[in-house]
Design a protein that fits this description.
- There is one protein chain.
- This protein has about 260 residues and is of the alpha/beta class.
- Helices cover about 40% and strands about 10% of the residues.
- It has nine helices and seven strands, in the order ααβαβααβαβαβββαα.
- The protein has helices spanning about 1-20, 20-35, 50-55, 85-90, 100-105, 125-135, 145-150, 195-215, 235-245; strands at about 40-45, 65-70, 115, 140-145, 170, 180, 190.
- Helix 2 crosses helix 8 (about 195-215).
- The longest helix has 22 residues, at about 195-215.
- The radius of gyration is 19 Å and the shape is globular.
- The N and C termini lie far apart (about 60 Å).
Length: about 260
Amino acid sequence: MSATQYFDQITRVIKRIESTQMEPLRRAGALMATVIGNGGRVYLFGSGHSVIPVMDVFPRYGSFIGFYPLYDPRLMWSNVIGPNGARELLWLERREGYIEQFLQSFAIGSGDCLTVFSHGGLNAAPIEAALYARARGAKVVTVSSLENARIAARSHSSGKALPDVADVAIDNCVEPEDAQVDVGLREKVGAASTIAAVSIAMALVSETASRLVAAGHQLDTFVSPNVEGVSKDHNFRVFDTYARKWHERAPEPVVK
């Protein structure tokens, strides 16, 4: 019974995204296609559970070079408790000033785009990642709960929530509570924001690809071996191309 309720709720969320977010999705796709088509990079960032859509974009069957995920293991728990546990991560992603120490290792600049995923959109890590990119001339796309940004108290010293610092802000259309299913307790169960974020991420990959191909660009796509006619070494060559492109650029020297 509750499993059916969850699928009903997730279907409602996806339909709401489709019916209300196509305009920002198209604008973000056009922006990303322009960036990649001009030789720039679409960086991707998230912390906690919001790293999941970042991981799912590239390398992933059906995605392509142009997307550059940024992973900080300190913001991705590998334990619930103990070293690299969830409590440490939850503390760190709220600390102002940390994320610059991570991002300064990457060549983010004008002509690039940073896409930031965060359901709540209030913690320091996603907000400061977006501010860092904007300060260097990059465009910013955000995926978060606009309702949470509307009703929740701002905790960052800037007084801003994540959508406030976006060039394109996409609503994940999930309620601030995130959980969806009422089983008779005060709190609901069954979170929706991850499925919403991954769905939006795949929609952005698809929209960007369509625009690039329409403009005459070739894609270095990561392809399932189940696709007929794909050579056995295809994905190895994609990795080689990605590595070569990654090392073409170095970050600016950090002078303190």
